[in-house]
């Protein structure tokens, strides 16, 4: 049993706070990032201006950097608490391919059980571990875009500045895909939202 949580709590206060701070930071980063992309686009499409943030490149960069620090500080706090409380190991591992396929099949048939929201099924475990790793890729590629000269080794590891732009873009797309699936799953099981709001 997690010492931070009480017996009646599904999600402890620290988890709910870091979740909503992360959600806020990610929304700001995505919307401002889309505006930055529009100013320097490398594909033959643009993001509709109405869903971007910042108004112009300079404003979008300011929003992006502010949200970046929020995500970084909050993400570090989230990871440290998960690591030192043992929650990371308990909640997200092991991830067994056979169980992932079984749970994915059950989810697609609408038969995936949600009897105990304190425990994640294999698909949830895989999705959350993916988003943690994807966020790491976003941070590292973002560092190359922000301070390319100061991180020459990192820049070379991702294939150069232009490659870092594409890595950052596709990692952002992966994060957006996770958000869409996450929102759909919450819509299918609304009590998960209530638990993240009030803890039980």
UniProtKB/TrEMBL annotation:
Signal sequence range: none
Regions crossing the membrane: 20-37, 63-84, 126-149, 169-190
Localization, UniProt: Cell membrane
Membrane topology listed for this record: Multi-pass membrane protein
Occurrences of domain Cytochrome b561 bacterial/Ni-hydrogenase (ranges): 11-199
Domain of life of the organism encoding this protein: Bacteria
InterPro entries noted in UniProt: Cyt_b561_bac/Ni-Hgenase (IPR011577), Di-haem_cyt_TM (IPR016174), Hydrogenase_cytochrome (IPR051542)
Keywords: Cell membrane, Membrane, Transmembrane, Transmembrane helix
Entries under Pfam families matching the protein: Ni_hydr_CYTB
Name this polypeptide is given: Cytochrome B
């Amino acid at each position: 049993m997690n010492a931070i949580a009480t017996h009646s709590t599904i999600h402890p206060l620290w988890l709910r706070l870091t979740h909503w701070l992360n959600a806020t930071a990610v929304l700001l980063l995505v919307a401002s990032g889309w505006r930055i992309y529009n100013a320097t686009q490398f594909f033959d499409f643009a993001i509709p201006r109405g869903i971007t943030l910042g108004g112009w490149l300079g404003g979008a960069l300011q929003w992006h950097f502010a949200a970046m620090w929020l995500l970084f500080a909050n993400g570090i706090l989230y990871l440290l608490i998960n690591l030192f409380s043992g929650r990371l190991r308990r909640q997200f591992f092991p991830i067994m391919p056979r169980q992932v396929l079984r749970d994915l099949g059950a989810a697609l048939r609408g038969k995936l059980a949600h009897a105990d929201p304190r425990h994640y099924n294999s698909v949830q475990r895989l999705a959350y571990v993916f988003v943690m790793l994807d966020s790491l890729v976003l941070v590292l590629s973002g560092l190359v875009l922000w301070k390319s000269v100061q991180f020459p080794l990192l820049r070379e590891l991702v294939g150069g500045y232009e490659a870092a732009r594409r890595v950052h873009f596709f990692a952002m797309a992966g994060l957006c895909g996770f958000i869409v699936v996450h929102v759909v799953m919450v819509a299918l099981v609304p009590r998960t939202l209530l638990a993240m709001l009030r803890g039980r």
